[in-house]
Amino acid sequence: MKFTINRDHFVQSVQHVSKAISPRTTIPVLTGIKIVASEDGVTLTGSDSDISIESFIPKEDEDIQLVEIEEPGSIVLQARFFAEIVKKLPEETIELTVADQFATTLKSGSSVFNLNGLDPDEYPRLPEIEEDNVFKLPADLLKNIIRQTVFAVSTVETRPILTGVNWAIEEGQLMCTATDSHRLAMRNVSVETNTNELSFSNVVIPGKSLNELNKILDDNNELTDIIVTENQILFKAKNILFFSRLLDGNYPATKNMIPTQSKTSVTLDTKKFLQAIERALLLSRDGKNNVVNLKTIGNGQLEITSVTPEVGKVTEDIVPLEFAGEELRISFNGKNIIDALKVIDSTDVKIDFTGAMSPFVMKPTEHDNMLHLFSPVRTY
Amino acid sequence: MKFTINRDHFVQSVQHVSKAISPRTTIPVLTGIKIVASEDGVTLTGSDSDISIESFIPKEDEDIQLVEIEEPGSIVLQARFFAEIVKKLPEETIELTVADQFATTLKSGSSVFNLNGLDPDEYPRLPEIEEDNVFKLPADLLKNIIRQTVFAVSTVETRPILTGVNWAIEEGQLMCTATDSHRLAMRNVSVETNTNELSFSNVVIPGKSLNELNKILDDNNELTDIIVTENQILFKAKNILFFSRLLDGNYPATKNMIPTQSKTSVTLDTKKFLQAIERALLLSRDGKNNVVNLKTIGNGQLEITSVTPEVGKVTEDIVPLEFAGEELRISFNGKNIIDALKVIDSTDVKIDFTGAMSPFVMKPTEHDNMLHLFSPVRTY
Q1: Which residues of B touch A318 (CB under 8 A)?
Q2: Number of CB atoms found within 10 A of residue B71's CB
Q3: The predicted structure's pLDDT at residue A287
Q4: What is the third-level CATH fold of B134-255?
């Protein structure tokens, strides 16, 4: 194998596929990046068998030559340091040559790296996925959906299914749900499908996969194709394939957990509410489980407090934009509220409480495609 | 005590004095910040008994009122979270009130923090320093001197004196030296003194103190007063006093360690040499102690190599700007060379070798106020 490649494009591809590679893999060849040179260009692959990422560098892009293939072929090179080696090479192009015994040479200007390659035939094949059921989302919207739900997944393995985000499609509506059983985030969006009959309900994508995908996707409105199979999901963006295993098991039914009535309802300025909770959290972070107290103090006013006996107490007075219903006294995990407030793209939020011991719902006021649910915390 | 203070100035002062505070102190009151309000303004103090920092906020600065004192007094408040509390308060000004039992209230807009204060009478006094022997350095030059030497101090406590930078003044010349016994950095500079007879030789400032001082000093050319006593050094910048304990013991004589002859001499482009060593280090970082090999390959050319058998080999060819003397083959710690190259403010550097087993000297070509010495590494 022998080719010359544009360094910057090579660096970016190496960084992309490296996101799938874990140094703790039990399959030695998966510590490497597979590089395949064909007549069309160069394909890189990284995988930890849960996530697999393929990045393609075409021979030309917008009339600029990116790769010159002298001899097609393939090799696997240790991912460790490889991104840094490539990034630090002195010239704009890099020549990669593979000789006998997978002996690989990277040349750039006066710099020469001789690297021990691995046998590319040992590298596992990527799953083959039939593209019958495809739906599409612009990359920037997909990134938003991920950001607005993935923070709420569980980070403990006691119920593995909760470490993923549940995706369901019904009548052209994608509904994404994440919960760690103390809080829940839900996001709806209309999607383009290639068939009106596309529907599924128990597709659970590992939170880790979505976080890595989010890092790789460009923030533009180019459409990403999404294909779901029995146990895999594939995201196809420009020159990138991102495969993720799906989680086994049944995602809990969450729809009927959401209260439909309200006993106390307040509308708040999102930013001011966020900052007040952030200040209250300063005195409840340590060993106090982030517990923040909220109570009505008459005249439709709210008071937020938090106490750490050794340090002191913080009191925040808030005048809601709107207030309706009963007086209330409730405690909750302030950090969960902050996580949600940070992803709500609305100037104001509306919170509906159904009593001190019942879950409460927070929604943006400006649109209806997002909902956050929180359990209260018992403080007595 | 009661005063109202500009939040941004208060935040900055709290951040400055916090740099001296260690949560692991054995003196409980030193986990706090001492705040003293007098007719002139507010003084904050932080200390871990090695370093003490005092920051003063005057009543007015450039005709802008910063503090309004209603009642002078003093208090000690827990440093933990305090910087963050102050930073997150909602309004431009903060009202601080101390009532009985050191009960302190911070008020800003609709936000109220009630904090448990500590008795200010328990706070240790700062050392009193006689200002007989003062010399001056512009803050930006002082920052440079620190940056160009402190990286070379020892980070292990086997010879505690080497964890500091040695300062000596003779005939108006300040000479700063740092060494970890494998490499040495030396920096000379002319200073203004209030007496021509100012001279000292065994002033050893802890590297940690210099690093903290460097973070606090503004990058401008305002003069900093420096006062040295038996066991303390004091830096006086605008509204800041920075005290550091000096290290006990005798700093080793370093002058006669520096070779005066040369068997092989090369002049190199600083940036190209730095990048070549950085690439060579990519294959010698892990368990290879950063060993990089350099040899002459005839025609006045150099080759830099580094090998990790499991991974591969890197070869860098360099054509020196100038070459004189014998052929050479030497190995050294590449990271030490990089540390020095990063602080050398000269386009080219000159290296003088005195054989494969002897220390070698690297100097900027553009001026004579800096010198770096390195021990070679035995590789056979």
Answers
A1: 110
A2: 10
A3: 62
A4: DNA Polymerase III; Chain A, domain 2 (3.10.150)
Of the pLDDT bands very low, low, confident and very high (cuts 50, 70, 90), residue B268 is very high
- Six-digit token string for B287: 């368990």
Handedness of CA A282, A284, A286, A290 (dihedral sign): negative
Q: Do B311 and A115 touch (CB under 8 A)?
A: yes
User: Could you tell me the pLDDT band of residue A295, with boundaries at 50, 70 and 90?
Assistant: very high
CA–CA distance, B45 with A201 (Å, rounded to integer): 61
**How close, in Å, is residue A362 to chain B by CA atoms?**
23
Please list every residue in chain A whose beta carbon sits closer than 8 Å to the beta carbon of residue B313.
Answer: 113-114
Cα-Cα-Cα-Cα dihedral sign, residues B87, B90, B93, B98: negative
pTM more than 0.90: yes
Residue of A nearest to B88 (CA): A279
CATH number of B258-374: 3.70.10.10
The answer to whether residues A113 and B312 touch, using CB atoms and an 8 Å cutoff, is yes
CATH number of A2-122: 3.40.50.280, 3.40.190.10, 3.40.190.170, 3.10.150.10? 3.10.150.10
**CA–CA separation, A324 and A340 (whole Å):** 23
Structure ipTM: 0.89
Task: Quickly state the pLDDT bin for B93 (edges 50, 70, 90).
Answer: very high
Q: Cα–Cα–Cα angle for B320, B325, B326, nearest 5°?
A: 105
CA–CA separation, B84 and B113 (whole Å):
12
Residue-wise pLDDT tens digits, B293-338: 999 998 889 999 999 888 899 999 999 999 999 999 999 999 999 9
Helix (H) or strand (E) run with residue B142 in it: helix B139-150
> Chain B closest CA to A312's CA: distance in Å?
4
Residue whose token pair is 């003063």 = B56
Q: What is the pLDDT of residues A196-220, one digit of tens each?
A: 778 899 999 999 999 999 999 999 9
pLDDT at B286 over 80: no
Task: Classify burial at B289, counting beta carbons within 10 Å of its beta carbon; exposed 0-12, middle 13-18, buried 19 or more.
Answer: exposed
Residue linked to tokens 């300040």 = B174
DSSP for A128-176, please give it: P---SSEEEEEHHHHHHHHHHHHTTS--STTSGGGGEEEEEEETTEEEE
Which pLDDT score is estimated for A25? 85
- The CATH number corresponding to A135-222+246-253 among 3.40.50.300, 3.30.70.920, 3.30.565.10, 3.70.10.10 equals 3.70.10.10
Taking all residues of chain A, what is their mean pLDDT, rounded to a whole number?
94
Q: What element of type H or E holds A205?
A: strand A200-206
Mean pLDDT calculated for residue range A304-326:
94
- Helix and strand tally (H, E) in chain B? 6, 29
Tokens of B133: 């022997």
Count of C-beta atoms within a 10 Å radius of residue A130: 7
Greatest alpha-carbon pair distance for chain A in Å reads 83
Beta-carbon separation of B312 and A113 below 8 A: yes
